[in-house]
Design a protein that fits this description.
heterodimer, A: mainly alpha, Fumarate Reductase Iron-sulfur Protein, Chain B, domain 2, 2 domains, four-stranded parallel beta sheet, 7 strands, B: about 70% helix, about 0% strand
Chain lengths: ~500, ~240
């Protein structure tokens, strides 16, 4: 099935031995000028790239406190060394968070600190050479920016920030990653990651409406570009075509229908995902976010709600106000933006929705906390709401729910292995290996508690799991959307029972 | 004034100058670089008071390290807590008369030096024995522990084994502080102890010892979770907005 070894489940999750250079390589495909230029980056590696890279690093040291503080502060205590899923799955020591940071920190020390200028060997400082650049490209594309290491660092050093900065530096010298940059260019040109134009989107949504009507006998709508409605729903474009994402989208539609709240999808802002995050580009993240503001103003909505997507919720929850605010033109009664789980949870609390939990009795569920939702956002009005609310939604529509082991959920959750701009076929080996700790946790509850399905609230998690889960002996349809469960259990007025 | 007195008095001024100015420079640098995005590691406190407590729990209890690795936490806490007590005990060489509370902690400070050495040896042992930590260690990481062991070891020796003329040393130290130079005792172990301390002060602002001020400036720990309620905009990012219009 694969031209690499799928890691064995570990009898007991012990700390792996080091296998230096296990994941040495060229990294994912490099962006071509056509992918680079729409983002404002040079088309290919510029002639004086060493100089430009150091200049860019100096510029970022003045713009980002995190970058400056994180590069200075690490004491190499080793607390993070066994926390990364890619290290656990590959045993490559350069996938230990501190070692990954040191790839860049060594260059920072050489050019920006006295110790590194005068005693490079002593403090592990090194010149920026082509080998170093290649190493950056390879290993900074083996980080899914999941922030798990930052939870355990005594100084909160976030490798995600370092890997974003490294990618930003590489983009700025014309050495970007094809997957991310091609997708961002599509958003600028068409409005979503898929490159699905308005006409095709409308056809797709009409098809889904027909499916729902055939299924339920009720005309549940998925409105597109409808002005003057209450809610603008911004959802990852994977929700329009991929499985099980699409079942989640139908779930949102049924919730809106049943609650009697008018809503619309926008063709201009038909993408919740914001890959500008993965490449650490403030400007690109901002430009993508601004499309949502524009759509909200043009459509005259009162609220903005985001569909199930992990990093999108990070950009939305933590940055949308920064990039595209202030949102004083929206209804002040609601937070901006809201998560679809918050929306559904509120309706469930108010008993607005009629639920038949037995509709999900063929499943025993567990829930995968998406890394960005868990460690970079919140839901509801209390810390940790991002763990409670999705589980409460699941429990409100399902009778059988079991959590995975405590050290693999909540803020200690393991990444699916495909986040951070790594969800591309040219990184398949990494994706399969990086999923090991999550697959072990899933296997545990499957064997101990008869779990049959794992629910997720992230488009990338869902795509990644459906693709890699067969390598570990599971079936791809064991991954479900949270709102797919809602969709199954919701009782529509006037529907066929 | 003899050569050694001159050398150590001058060294004391130089080390203090580099330590204070260097540290102030880094603190001002950390404070003046903006954090343009909201990036607290969640779940995070919703209020400034909560965020302050979170940072304090990292500084005082090493709370994230506790979740992460009990051995590193144990040795780290032993070393840092003992170092604090030992440092406070040393105040007696800089003040006259000695404050009551400094006199009271004297026995804790004396025996605390053993705890400090145990912590340091534990950290050094892990760095040598644990393959993952050995892999990430630079020469400077070992040397830093060796330097601290030299300081702690020589100090403990003076307290319990080969005493120096501590009264004469205090005269020297008090004199240095008011530019009235008195001869320094010439026991080699004292000179090694003092030289190592000066070296530590000099490398402090240029080394990983910057984790001491850095921990207060870490955005993932000191930010309040209020992104939806309060718009967060860095000055350089605000300029992008004026460019738009």
């Amino acid at each position: 099935m694969a031209d690499f070894d799928v890691p064995d489940f570990r009898p007991y999750p012990f700390v792996p031995e080091l296998k230096p250079d296990a994941m040495k390589g060229k990294g994912p495909f490099i962006a071509k000028p056509v992918h680079q230029e729409p983002l404002g980056f040079p088309g290919e590696l510029v002639d004086n790239w060493e100089e430009k890279a150091i200049e860019k690093m100096g510029d970022m040291l003045k713009k980002y406190r995190s970058f400056r503080v994180y590069l200075d502060t690490c004491v190499r205590c080793g607390a993070c060394t066994d926390k990364c899923h890619y290290f656990i799955g590959t045993n490559d020591p350069k996938n230990m968070p501190v070692a990954r940071q040191d790839l860049l920190r060594s260059v920072y020390r050489r050019y920006f600190t006295l110790a590194g200028k005068f005693f490079p060997k002593l403090v592990g400082a090194r010149d920026l050479t082509r080998d170093v650049l290649d190493e950056w490209y390879n290993y900074y594309h083996q980080c899914s920016q999941c922030r798990r290491c930052s939870v355990f660092c005594p100084y909160g050093i976030d490798t995600a920030d370092i890997s974003m900065a490294a990618r930003e530096i590489m983009d700025s010298i014309g050495h970007g990653q094809k997957y991310c940059n091609e997708i961002i260019a599509k958003v600028f040109k068409i409005g979503n990651n898929l490159g699905l134009p308005e006409r095709a989107l409308r056809d797709t949504l009409n098809g889904l409406e027909e499916d729902m009507e055939d299924d339920t006998g009720v005309a549940v709508k998925i409105p597109l570009d409808e002005k003057g409605v209450d809610v603008l729903l911004v959802t990852p474009s994977a929700d329009f075509f991929a499985e099980p994402h699409i079942d989640g989208l139908m779930g949102y539609a049924k919730v809106f229908h049943q609650a009697g709240i008018s809503w619309t999808v926008s063709s201009y802002a038909s993408e919740a995902a914001n890959f500008g995050l993965f490449i650490g580009s403030y400007e690109n993240m901002r430009n993508i976010s601004q499309r949502i503001r524009t759509a909200a103003l043009e459509l005259g909505v009162k609220r903005i709600i985001f569909g199930e997507c992990g990093h999108a919720w990070r950009v939305a929850y933590s940055y949308l106000n920064t990039f595209a605010g202030p949102f004083d033109f929206l209804d002040p009664k609601y937070p901006v933006p809201q998560h679809i789980c918050e929306f559904t949870y509120d309706l469930l609390q108010k008993n607005v929705l009629k639920i038949d939990k037995s509709a999900n009795d063929d499943m025993v569920l567990t829930f995968h906390d998406s890394c960005n939702v868990a460690r970079a956002t919140r839901m509801g009005n209390f810390p940790g709401g991002q763990f409670v609310i999705p589980r409460e939604v699941i429990k409100a529509v399902c009778n059988n729910y079991v959590d995975m082991p405590a050290d693999t959920i909540h803020d200690q959750t393991f990444c699916c292995g495909g986040g951070g701009g790594l969800l591309t076929d040219d990184l398949m080996e990494l994706r399969v290996k990086g999923a090991l700790p999550r697959m072990e946790a899933l296997k545990h509850v499957v064997e101990e508690h008869g779990v049959t399905h794992m629910a997720a609230i992230c488009a990338i998690c869902k795509s990644q799991f459906t693709k890699i889960i067969p390598y570990y002996g599971f079936q791809m349809d064991q991954i479900v959307s949270v709102h797919q469960l809602v969709s199954n259990a919701i009782v529509l007025d006037g529907g066929e029972v | 004034m003899d050569f050694l007195t001159t050398l150590f008095a001058a060294g004391f001024y130089l080390a203090t100058l580099i330590f204070v100015v260097g540290l102030l420079f880094k603190i001002i640098q950390y404070a003046s670089v903006p954090a343009p995005l909201k990036v607290p590691t969640m779940p995070a406190p919703l209020t400034t008071g909560g965020a302050t407590l979170r940072v304090l729990s990292e500084v005082v209890l090493f709370s994230s390290l506790f979740r992460s690795n009990k051995w590193i936490w144990l040795f780290g806490v032993l070393f840092h807590a003992a170092l604090l007590v030992v440092l406070l005990r040393h105040l007696r060489y800089f003040i006259d008369p000695v404050w009551m509370w400094v006199a009271l902690i004297q026995p804790f400070g004396k025996y605390g030096s053993f705890v400090m050495l145990i912590g340091l040896l534990g950290l050094l042992g892990r760095r040598i024995v644990v393959e993952r930590i050995r892999y990430i260690s630079n020469p400077s990481d070992y040397l830093m522990l060796v330097l601290l062991l030299v300081i702690g070891g020589s100090g403990t020796m003076m307290t319990f084994v080969v005493h120096t003329d501590i009264v004469q040393f205090k005269q020297f130290m008090l004199g240095v502080m008011v530019f009235d130079f008195k001869p320094i005792p010439t026991d080699p172990i004292l000179l090694v102890h003092l030289a190592a301390v000066m070296l530590l002060m000099i490398i402090f602002p240029f080394s990983k010892l910057l984790h001491a001020p850095g921990v207060f400036f870490s955005p993932s720990r000191n930010q309040v979770d209020n992104a939806r309620e309060k718009r967060h905009l860095a000055p350089w990012a605000a300029k992008l907005e004026t460019q738009d219009s």
